[in-house]
Amino acid sequence: MDKEYKRMLKKFFKNPSGVFGLVLLIFFTIVAIFAPIIAPPQPSNQYEPYMMPIVTWSPDPQPPSKEHPFGVSERRDIFYGVVWGTRTAFRIGLIVTGVSTLIGLFIGSISAYYGGWIDEILMRITDIFLSIPFLIAAIVLTTLLGTGLDKVMIAMIVFGWMGTARLIRGNILQAKEEQYVLAAKAIGVSTPGIIIRHLLPNTIFPVLIQASMRMGSLVITAAILSFLGLGAPQGYSDWGAILNYARNWMLGAHGEALKYWYTIVFPGTAMVLFVLAWNLIGDTLRDIFDPRLRI
Amino acid sequence: MTAYIIRRLLLLPLVLFGITLIVFGLFQMLGPDKLLSAYINPNLAEKLSPEEMEKFKDKYGLNDPLIVRYGKWISSVFKGDLGWSLVGKEPVLDAMKKRIPFTVELALYALIPVVGVGIWLGVAAAVRHNSPIDHFIRIFAIVGWSFPDFVFGLFVLMIFYSVLGWFPPGNMSLWAEEIFKSPAFKHITGLPSIDALLNGQFRVFVDCLRHLVGPILTISWLWWAYLLRITRSSMLEVLRKDYVRTARAKGLDERTVINKHARRNAMIPVTTVAGAMVIGLLSGTVIVEAVFNRTGIGSFIATAATQLDYASVMGGVLFYSTILVLGNLIIDILYAIIDPRIRLT
Amino acid sequence: MSVLSEKTPILQVKDLRTYFYTEDGVVKAVDGVSFEVYEGETLGIVGESGCGKSVTSLSILRLLDEKGRIESGEIIYKGKNLLELSESEMRKIRGNEIAMIFQEPMTALNPVYTIGDQIMEAIILHQGLSKDEARKLAIDMLRKVGIPEPEKRVDEYPHELSGGMRQRAMIAMALSCNPSILIADEPTTALDVTIQAQILELMQQLQKEYGMSIIMITHDLGVIAEMSDRVLVMYAGKVVEHASVRELFKNPKHPYTWGLMNSIPRLDIEYERLYAIPGTVPDALHFPEGCRFHTRCEFATDKCRSEEPPLVEVSPGHLSACWHIDRLESAVAVQRKGESA
Q1: How far apart are CA C134 and CA C281, in angstroms?
Q2: Within an 8 Å CB–CB cutoff, is residue B308 touching chain A?
Q3: Looking at beta carbons, which residues of chain C come within 8 Å of A11?
Q4: What pLDDT, in 10s, does the model give residues C69-101?
């Protein structure tokens, strides 16, 4: 098993896109950890460091300058928002992915292990949750719960576990027929014991890969909700919210060619790279683990 | 085959029933006071005394047990009464009727480039496996998939509107809207651009298309990336199958082997993700309508959500879920057409 | 070198080398294989999986995947070197002059087209018949291979047929253009034993009727004994023995062949345990030095470990590649004496 891990690691590091993704991710991690040093909050602001400081009273965006390297949008410093937004992105991504994956694991493994009517009921519930488009469902739930990042996260968890549940159910159903599980059953290992010790380890990798691929799309969805005005409050360091400010300038900007480019390019690039990092890593892992793609 | 379709059609009401249950159930979390706003004009509501409010709650059955309330609600839905829309300042159904054509038009038009180009790119990459073209298409796929559609839409606006001035935001220009809303304009199919052609208003038609290019490009971009990846890997797998070798062993030329024997099989897994694609397309309309300032069901539901306009959100969800269920039905039928093994009777 | 020199061969394979270029290195799947096929005969190629027998047959039709390349050699069919033909000339050979059937009739037939569609395709392509004529011929072929109700079956999909019926349909497809050579790659391996016998009988009967040559690829010496006129034994990409079927079973001249024969269970002897050739097939990336069989051979000496034995004629019409045929012969003699006693 140890050798197998080493072989996989070697394969991962041989893949340039996987390494690029990892480098990007490390970069974002460093930015997130050292946010207070890279973009120190003003003394008046230190109890709410996630609020982007207001730096001017003029409502027009201002181009990048020495004090504001990424420019100013909606009277706030974009650089500060992009740096602290990295923390927001990690928080949303990790919490939502983690919790929804756990819920999915729980429901999927119970459904697969017990089968019969329990499986039937759980899978029909899954179907119903899947019959409402994810974004729409998140919009509805944030309407009901009220706006705010925490509400957005709850909404995404409530409507985000179905993929994992289906995946783990399929995997377990397949693994259940394998010899070692039948053997464990025959010598009388208890049901939770079989699930935890035998079934999960052998079916968990696809779930982890799926989770890393989902990180990116979850961060995007959260940003969309912020962009639509349902997520982060005014002035909060969140890439989607910063992009929301830019929207007003773009819609009315015909003729003012590229004048406000910085309001989109900096938060937009941060977001694309963050999502790209997770997708590259997930993609590389999948290539390594999916034997069908291995030649 | 026919039996299969009929059985699926018979299941349809059941699924729709499930959706109404979940939508209704979710909104019961709000409590009677907030729910009342879905029934009465808010200007009126402010002038009401608590006793009168209670009367209204009784009138709309908000104090009844859940099952009774659901029954009343569903019967009013069937009558076309979806409540009062704060955003539209008119009954929800009327507000939706005005917006649905623009969303449907956008989704339908986007479907053509999304499916056509996505599959074409995927097959092209798989057939030239490991060539420079393949590498280029793969990089495009992963970068494209990481590019959030609303960010991409903002870039499209920046370049094609701010810089070039080609594709403006909105549904159509003011002058076109005047013609569109004039009594002489006949609404035949419901789709604005097609109706413009049928009315002989060629300039209105072109104007509609100009306003559609940006949104369609934005929606397509992401799904090209997605579809081409799935088509590519599925095509690569199929190209290794024994029956492809059999086809070659028969002496068929490479074009027939790929277009006849491989591609149809490669489409089977692609069909299974088509459901996810319909969801994506529908979500895409929400985002794109917000970015490009279009009035449609997508921007309607988004605006309604920010203004806590429950009735409108409920109406919007019903619309989107119904479309999704219908879309999945069509996909399942397509699936059965492509793969004879699931044509079970 | 020719074993039956009085006839002219219809197909001659000379020093064929087919390599696969994988991420981990070069796999020499076929490494200098020569043989010929005569009109109307059946040549059996036998060996364990991974010995290169399937790659040899795919090389003849040039159907290797992107990683495989024919490095050198000649494949002469009716005077033409197939390796020098253009792709479009090659297509006229495939399915028309040389046809092939595969191991898994389930996966070798396209699941989304009817049996009839798939048979008609080759007929229309090579014989230029109209759709209606091709359909008639397809139904005739299905009847000939013993499929009941061919008029109905022709419109069915592969999944609606049983395994044996599918392989019959495969045979009908392969024979529909009256090929001179039929390559059968483990045609019965995936089938039940009773069905196996039926399919082999069908192939023999059709061979008589059409007069084609068959290259029968299998790991099963029983199939070889039943079907073949001559046998090629392959091990690790090389031919190790080549003889008529009668001669091979009577006087095996290579330890590998003898090992294969000993691993067939027999009813006339009581076993303590069934014999199996010790060890496993060597990794195709790292074939051993010298004789490639030495790692599993009970007669191996230092010479075997360092020098590769050439394939030479050891008795008229019998070729073998072994340094120690004498040791083998005495071992065989001892065993046979024990059996008869």
Answers
A1: 45
A2: yes
A3: none
A4: 999 999 999 889 999 999 889 999 998 999 999
